């Protein structure tokens, strides 16, 4: 495969810092939020009501940053130790908190969160080192990809690009392995459907960018248990049915944008929703 061009450090959050015009591009995070609740999508991406960063989100970004730096060094065949990755968290913490206007309740909370990020990254790197996965060769790290959305069945160009930022593409025995890092409060069953939009989007972008098929897709979860747990869940190469399902979702999403219709979707997702006690209550249908 062609090695993809590396872009500036970016995470899903960085993706959201791009132009927020909903007609500029489609992304997996936009699709996923719209699927969870069209009203929450509207509040964030159309009304521009962006909740302040939570400690959990901030921790996730610092973990992503340390892993990105680790794999960027690996990509250049430059040694970068587990300790150096932990140091990266300590050294960049204060500046990142200032940049993101992260407000901690106390110094104690700040210190505990920083240690949790260090523990997660250390556990991950120790595990992959032990499993020899650290020797895997990164083909691309934090790579931004964009491609026109062309319906595979009809050839129709939907007139809006798909964009996404892939954490890591590793050279694997089965071919290029598309990896996504997640931090989570607890283990979750590896139901493929929960990640389907993201995985199918990344595979589509990868194929458009390289002309190659991915060798597989993997979600690497760093679980914030007292003793951090690391889980790898691997998913098969995308099939035509996966892409048909993705395009069905994208078409429904674009229909909602066209109709300016964003109906609330009360349910389990409300438990974690930042709009629950504010803007959601003001919505009158
Ligand atoms: S609280 Fe529930 S219904 Fe309201 S915006 Fe959030 S996810 Fe949607």
Number of strands: 5
Enumerate the distinct ligands: iron/sulfur cluster
What's the Cα radius of gyration?
A: 19 Å
Q: Find the structural class using helix and strand composition.
A: alpha+beta
Question: Shape from CA axes?
Answer: globular
> Which fold name corresponds to the CATH topology?
Lambda Exonuclease, Chain A
Overall description:
The chain has one domain (22-259): Lambda Exonuclease, Chain A (Alpha-Beta Complex), CATH 3.90.320.10. It is built from nine helices and five strands; from the N terminus they run H-H-H-H-H-H-E-E-E-H-E-E-H-H. The protein has helices at residues 12-16, 28-36, 38-46, 55-75, 82-99, 107-130, 196-210, 240-259, 279-282, and strands at residues 137-150, 157-172, 175-184, 216-223, 229-235. Strands 1-2-3-4-5 form a five-stranded mixed sheet, sandwiched between helices. Helix 5 runs antiparallel to helix 6. The longest helix has 24 residues, at 107-130. 31% of the residues are buried. Residues 1-12 and 14-19 have low confidence and may be disordered. The structure holds iron/sulfur cluster. Iron/sulfur cluster binds at residues 37, 39-40, 264-266, 269-270, 273, 275-276, 280.
